[in-house]
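Hello again, I could really use a second opinion on something today. I've been staring at a protein lately and its backbone has me curious. You're getting the sequence in one-letter code plus the fold written as tokens. I'd be grateful if you could look everything over and explain what you see. No rush at all, and the record is pasted right below:
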Amino acid sequence: MPLIHGNSTQDFFEQNPEYRYYDAIQNLIKQYGQDRASQLIWAVYLAEHPSSPFYKKEKSERRKIVSKNYLNDEKFDWEDEDVKILISDFPGIFMSKGEIMFKIWMDKFEEGTVWLREQSFDTNASGLFNQLGKVKSTWKDFLEMKEAFDAEQSKIAQSRGDRKIGAAAKRRMQRGSEKKTNG
């Protein structure tokens, strides 16, 4: 079953009420109010979660996209202490073990990619070739782990389709259809 349900354009806590009971989330709500806490959680999801449609981009690019187009705040401070705490707590609260492992690997590969991009053959050829030689076996291990992650994500996607509608949602849908037939 997916750990986070819903749509980032709607209130996080209405779609995922069980998460409000975590201490870290309680503190976030107390400090920012439910609306802003909801928005911050969705922002971190969009920038940091492997299931986010932006996750294929580098972290700095993901954060720019989310700041500008979701938060409507190009100067949003991802290094703010409260935001850093939320980002740090996020995997343990909102991700499966498979998603956490995948994220760790992806983050490390991104760090390595940034490092490789900054290297120059002119000044560090032997060290660069040494590191590139290690990438092949690490990449093979990563692909095996990614295969397990993809299988988990497939099960999650299937469970979304199998999820039952709750009683409250059924009542809302029924009231909506009654209004249409009566109005």
